[in-house]
Amino acid sequence: MKRKIITVGECVVGTEPELVLETFLGSCAGVTLYDRVAAIGGMGHFLLPHGSSSREQERPCAYVDKGVPCLVKSMQEAGAVLHNMVAVVAGGAHIRSARGSVDFRIGQRNVLAVREIMTQFGIPITQEDTGGHVGRNMRMQVADGTVSIRSSLSKQEVSSSDSSVAPTPLRHRELRQAIDAVKPISKPALEAMRLAGDLDSSFAQIERQVLQDQVLTATVLRLINSAWYSLPNRISRISQALALLGLARFRRLILQSCMHSFLSRKLSAYSIEEGVLFSHAICCGRLAEYISQRSKQGDPEEAYVAGLLHDIGKVVLEQCARNRFQEIMTLVQLGRISFNEAEQKILHTDHGIVGGLLAAEWGLNPELTQVIAHHHHPPPKSVVSPLVPVVHFADYLCNILGAGMSATTMANPLYGQALADLGLDSVTVEEILDELPPISSC
């Protein structure tokens, strides 16, 4: 099997029988086309119904009105015939609503745009799985055109022994034990992470801590030589990394390296596969940095760090509360409440608050601790760090993009007060969405 992940603003066509095309969706629309005679398949991941003329020219496949015709044309160039094509559509979810929340109905608009353009082309839609408050994984086998669509709430794993335990509120003792038991970051790595987040620290101080930890050193070198950085030449020494990246980007590399193994684990309670939470964290960090710069709220570097760390509490709850998550899932699916509210109802806490406790345990600065704790339900900016609404909005954008699919994708609301604190309205939010494809290459 040859697997190809389709990212936002990308259209791919294939003819190899062993090829599997796959994408992850929030409010975006995912479309597959298949010629049943020629056995040619294609997939596109579309962010918005349409964009500004400049953005559509730069990245046409990010938008339904330009991207679908591009996908059709690519299919024809590969040998497909229009009247033999059939389509499958997925995604188009809308964010969970709550008092004070907002929803721009991006998903609904995307789906309507796809239906309209398919009618224009005369391509029948043979399968559709859209709407709701869930993320989706869409996968097509090019060999026969089979398309499978999985909901972000459909794969929560609970062992038989776990499911026999009646859900009860999480006790403080259990939580403290989990915080103590979760695989700790080494002292050198923790100190390196603190120094990397301190703009007054020097390269020599950071390097000294990194070199004390062989695992961290190896992780730094592995990451800088990975597709995340796409460097032309292989890096073999920490000093080379600094010379190539500069101090600011080197700090970021250290933070990513410190959190890589911690955030890369599989979290069954949240239906998070191995490596997915780390990808989500990187994307949220990038978007938080961008929002901080655009709105002039908080320090962009601090915003990146906060975005990177915002979901660390999920790792703790995986350890001590996994047997209670089936009840949480049921509440979300049937109770018309957000995932965060369901955590509170069953556990009497949530992953944000737990993450804040872990951040304090690690000795991170109070502002970061506050952002992590409140990122799903930000109080007014006047009483918390301005980075709280920044990360809240960045996390919402990750949901829109389907970046890091989990049980919480599309299951927590976007609060209007957070947008007001950032000085954003419906017009500026649309402008930001239009700018996302080049920023969110996560």
In a nutshell, what does this entry contain?
With 442 residues, this protein is of the alpha+beta class. It has 19 helices and eleven strands.
Oligomeric state of this protein = single chain
Q: What is the ordering of alpha helices and beta strands?
A: EEEEEHHEEHEEEHHHHHHHHHHHHHHEHH
CATH class identity of the largest domain: Mainly Alpha
Q: How many strands? A: 11
The CATH architecture of the largest domain can be given as: Orthogonal Bundle
Helix share bin: 40-55%
Overall morphology: globular
Provide the CATH superfamily of the largest domain: Hypothetical protein af1432
Low-pLDDT stretches: 156-165
Radius of gyration, taken over Cα atoms and rounded to an integer in Å: 22 Å
CATH topology of the largest domain: Hypothetical protein af1432
Class inferred from helices and paired strands: alpha+beta
Enumerate how many helices there are, as a single number.
19
What is the mean pLDDT?
A: 90
What percentage of the residues does DSSP assign to strands (E)?
5-15%
Biggest pleated sheet: 5 strands, mixed
Order of strands, widest sheet = 2-5-4-6-8
Features:
442 residues, alpha+beta, 60s Ribosomal Protein L30, Chain: A, Hypothetical protein af1432, 2 domains, 5-stranded mixed sheet, 11 strands, 13% strand, globular
